[in-house]
Amino acid sequence: MRHARNPALLAPLALRGVELRNRVVISPMQEYAAGTDGKALEFHLVHLGRFALGGAGLVFTEALAVSPEARLTYGDLGIWDDGHVPPLARIADFVRGQGAAAGAQILHAGRKASVQRPWLGYQPLGDADVRERGEAPWPTVGPSAIPALPDWPVPRTLEPGDCRRVVDEFALGARRCRQAGFDVLNVHGAHGYLIHSFLSPLSNRRDDEYGGDRAGRMRLALEVAEAVRSEWPSDRPIFYRLSCIDDLPGGWQLEDTLALAWELGRRGIDVIDCSSQGLTRRGTPVTTPREPGFQVPYAEAVRRETGIPSCAVGLIMDFEHAERIVGSGQADLVAVGREALRNPNWAAQAAVDLVGPEAYERYWQPRWGWWLVRRAASLARRRGLNRKD
Ligand SMILES: Cc1cc2nc3c(=O)[nH]c(=O)nc-3n(C[C@H](O)[C@H](O)[C@H](O)COP(=O)(O)O)c2cc1C
């Protein structure tokens, strides 16, 4: 590989008053590791801390539920109580102390709430879960009485007053994230959860002000944007994660996303975090093959058509691929999920691959880089000697 002195992936990015040290974002990833009170544990500190030590520019927490009903599982982290703030503040402090920006994502799971942890089946909670773990199902909510899958529980339809309460819960969640000292907020408006289910014509069949035409279906998403912006400091950025397409016949489409992104930008949202799908099923795209970077075109379209910075995500694993995405202007940021689970030093390793071994000193934290750059030189010398043999 040809090394570059200043790769685009490693360039800092200023968003409002927050400067990210590079363009690598750790994508929000639920761990389902909390106790039933939704409080962050040592596990979450170490799990997220590894990514900050590993060189990422911005580390997002997993989705924090804005109410107990907003959780997917009993193991989700919460932000519905003031007691959630101190352990999250510890995480935000640690992440920032390692040079990364600390981000928090907030969520209402809507009609996809009340499920088992993935490794227990990922199905709606039922009698066996009560018997085996004391985990009783709770009623789910949605825009209309349409379940996420045909054999899933039918959600209760939210009345307009309920929608306003949910907006308030998002605002309170944002306030608590601010109190915890996070630099960046991310609103989860994707993957079939509550906000997304209001956007899509397949799940929203209402004829009141929160449904009907696209403007009506966008109302909840936009009210949440306004509410969280009013709670979030003006010198800190907000990301909004969208499923840019449903990838289902008659569903939400890219042109809808562009219209929504434009409106979100007008309400002070700084980055559109471009995911897709998830309205009715998990991991089963109808037409779009899941290949590396399959969602990058959405991030590119958002950036080009609306002028709002975008974050690309989805099977971005290769360092040069990530560099091309940012370098060619397809997205301002690249979010990495599972590949970072595999290698929490993904961002720091990208620097070594793109720049060369001197990146150990420039981009790795000094406690590690000081040794590794010397080891790299000694290994290179050794390889040279062996070649002469
Ligand atoms: C274990 C796991 C948990 C996830 N939890 C969240 C979440 O809390 N919020 C979210 O927006 N996306 C979540 N996602 C989706 C990821 O953020 C990311 O968009 C997806 O994994 C695709 O990126 P990747 O191919 O780099 O993993 C999760 C993904 C995984 C693998």
Distance between the termini: 25 Å
Overall pLDDT score: 96
By CATH's scheme, which homologous superfamily of the largest domain applies? Aldolase class I
The CATH architecture designation of the largest domain is Alpha-Beta Barrel
Order of SSEs? EEEHEEHEHEEHEHHEHEHEHEHHHH
Structural class, from helix and strand content?
alpha/beta
Tell me about the largest β-sheet.
8 strands, parallel, barrel
Uncertain segments? none
Any idea of the CATH class of the largest domain? Alpha Beta
What is the domain tally? 2
CATH fold name of the largest domain:
TIM Barrel
**Which radius of gyration do the C-alpha atoms yield?**
21 Å
Q: Shape, please?
A: globular
Query: Strand fraction band?
Result: 5-15%
Write up what this structure looks like.
This protein is α/β, with parallel strands linked by helices. The protein has 2 domains: about 10-355, Alpha-Beta Barrel (TIM Barrel), CATH 3.20.20; about 365-389. About 40% of the residues lie in helices and about 15% in strands. It contains 13 helices and 13 strands. It has helices spanning about 40-55, 85-95, 125-135, 160-180, 195-200, 215-230, 255-265, 295-305, 320-325, 340, 345-355, 360-365, 365-389, and strands spanning about 15, 20, 25, 60-65, 75-80, 100-105, 140, 155, 185-190, 240-245, 270-275, 310-315, 335. An 8-stranded parallel β-barrel has the order 3-4-6-9-10-11-12-13, surrounded by 7 helices. A two-stranded antiparallel ribbon has the order 1-2. It has a two-stranded parallel sheet with strand order 7-8. β12, α9 and β13 form a beta-alpha-beta unit. α1 (about 40-55) runs parallel beside α2 and α4 (about 160-180) packs parallel to α6. It is globular, with a radius of gyration of 21 Å. The two termini are about 25 Å apart. The structure holds flavin mononucleotide. The site of flavin mononucleotide has 19 residues, from β4 and α10.
